[in-house]
Specification:
Number of strands: 17
Radius of gyration: 25 Å
Largest sheet: 9 strands, mixed
Number of helices: 14
CATH class: Alpha Beta
Number of domains: 1
CATH topology: Alkaline Phosphatase, subunit A
Helix content: 25-40%
Shape: globular
Distance between the termini: 59 Å
CATH architecture: 3-Layer(aba) Sandwich
Strand content: 5-15%
């Protein structure tokens, strides 16, 4: 394909008509009563004087430290949160073995799950062929903690100490029953790939607080046990149809935090600057010629990458952290790539103005060997989660930082595979699971939602993923129905087109 042919294919229909390249096309548009020059191209970012659906309704932009937030959409409510740290346990933690205590199940050991409880529930291919569905009570001990009286498993002693800082939602539910659609659903609001993730929506809505770091950062922590890890694809932190600048930037756990962050050998900094200036000029010519808004995204990314050459090494250099930090987070925080190290970096990122930090921790897919794997998983995350919440609190950051912990679904009360009193496995269960949240406008010491004696069906206060997303946006100051982006002729939003409600009872 020749350069001219490439240029023609890059030109959008609206750009073609807007330049008057076709009199017939212009006449056709006029005959339909459509203005020929209708503003920005579909899918492009709105200009400052042409509000999108995200900015309509009379809300005005809320400043940060008295300044307008660069690129931000005006908020619809007073915001409780300015940052989010989302701790995603990839694979689906077992709510029955961690938070949803069901003592009556001891009497049902190895008995068949009643049909009146299962009610024809869709099963995965891992257990649909089982001849029986024997009940597996949790082998772990539980105790009540704090003034809230929340039940917590013995494997989470540090989490147990801070239950009065947390809000537990025990009635989360989803339609997705397998990992790929389920994790895509909870991260993007849709089981189909290609949508923007929560972090991208936060970046789009709030804008940046730091010109030298990304607005949205992703960390993939290494788990101690690696029996059954799930794939963690970069599409999970994609910007989807939003401008590319809102995609997450992943920091690597080994070597340079970001590839090519350093100047190439033999290339001094001033030469790198001259090179980028030349590339910028070429990109500006392309932007003026083609009119593709992603060209400006590319320019901004080059410039941010140049500034990050100074900011990222300072960020990941923990030499200045006092010994008390490692007493709080544990010695694992000294090791790059661990969950503890990632949690400490999350605090440092928020301190420096990063809006959204996503940490993924793998190997929570407990189809077998719960006794062997659950202790290692809990040890990886228990103390660091406690440390992160307490560290944010003592630095005055928790009030404006929403911390979220949870997976993409829960686990079944019946066993997958061999059942003994000392060990068992659990299959995927989308009908109820537990997450916790802290800070950022969440009511502390709250327990929301209830499940039946089998932790199989919700009996009170169900929370769908859409409700979860709507509540997050409310804490950030946005009405989930009004924070939208025009794409394919529709005002797209995180919560989609189905009904979603804010869970007001868990808000402070």
């Amino acid at each position: 394909m020749t350069p001219f042919e490439q240029w023609v294919r890059l030109e959008t229909r609206r750009q073609f008509f807007a330049r008057g390249a076709s009199v017939l096309g212009a006449a056709a548009l006029a005959s339909l009563g459509q203005p020929l020059f209708a503003g920005p191209a579909e899918g492009s970012a709105p200009s400052s004087n042409e509000p999108s659906a995200a900015t309509q309704g009379g809300a005005s932009a809320e400043g940060v430290r008295g300044q307008a937030r660069p690129g931000a959409a005006p908020r619809h409510f007073p915001a409780k949160a300015e940052h989010i740290i989302y701790l995603h346990m990839v694979g689906g933690p077992s709510q029955i073995d961690l938070f949803d205590y069901k003592p009556k199940m001891v009497e049902f050991f190895d008995k068949e799950l009643p049909d009146s409880v299962r009610m024809g529930q869709r099963l995965t291919t891992m257990t649909s062929g089982q001849a029986r569905f024997p009940i597996a009570p949790s082998k772990y001990k539980f105790e009540r903690h704090g003034q809230s009286g929340m039940w917590v498993c013995e494997l989470l002693p540090h989490t147990a100490k801070m239950v009065d800082d947390l809000c537990f939602i025990r009635s989360m539910h989803t339609e997705a029953i397998n990992h790929e659609p389920a994790i895509t659903y909870i991260q993007t609001g849709n089981q189909i790939t290609g949508r923007p993730c929560i972090g991208a929506w936060v970046s789009y809505g709030l804008g940046t607080l730091n010109d030298n770091l990304p607005t949205f950062v992703v960390l993939v922590a290494k788990s101690t046990n690696t029996e059954q890890v799930q794939a963690i694809a970069a599409r999970l932190w994609s910007a989807g149809y939003l401008p590319g600048q809102h995609a997450g930037v992943a920091l690597r756990s080994g070597g340079d935090p970001i590839l090519y962050i350093n100047d190439p050998p033999g290339v001094p900094r001033n030469v790198r600057r001259l090179t980028l200036d030349g590339i910028r000029e070429l990109n500006e010519i392309t932007a003026r010629t083609v009119g593709d808004p992603e060209t400006h995204t590319r320019i901004e990314q080059y410039e941010l990458a140049f500034r990050m050459q100074a900011s990222v090494p300072e960020l990941v250099d923990l030499a200045g952290e006092p010994e008390s930090t490692y007493t709080l987070y544990g010695d694992e925080a000294r090791k790059p790539g661990t969950f503890a190290h990632s949690a400490l970096l999350a605090r440092r990122l928020v301190e420096r103005g990063v809006r959204f930090v996503q940490i993924y921790h793998n190997n929570w897919d407990h189809h077998a060997n719960v006794a062997g794997r659950m202790p290692a998983q809990c040890k990886d995350v228990d103390q660091p989660c406690y440390a992160l919440v307490q560290d944010l609190k003592r630095r005055g950051l928790l009030e404006k930082t929403l911390v979220i912990w949870g997976g993409e679904f829960g686990r079944t009360i019946y066993t997958q595979g061999t059942l003994t009193k000392e060990n068992y496995g659990r299959d995927h269960h989308p009908r109820c699971f537990t997450i916790w949240m802290a800070g950022g406008g969440i009511r502390p010491g709250t327990i929301y939602g209830e499940t039946d004696d089998f932790s199989y069906n919700i009996t009170a206060d169900p929370v769908h993923l859409r409700d979860f997303h709507a509540t997050i946006l409310k804490l950030l100051g946005y009405d989930h129905e009004r924070l939208t982006y025009r794409y394919l002729g529709l005002d797209q939003r995180l919560t989609g087109v189905e009904k979603a409600k804010v869970i007001d009872r868990i808000l402070a």
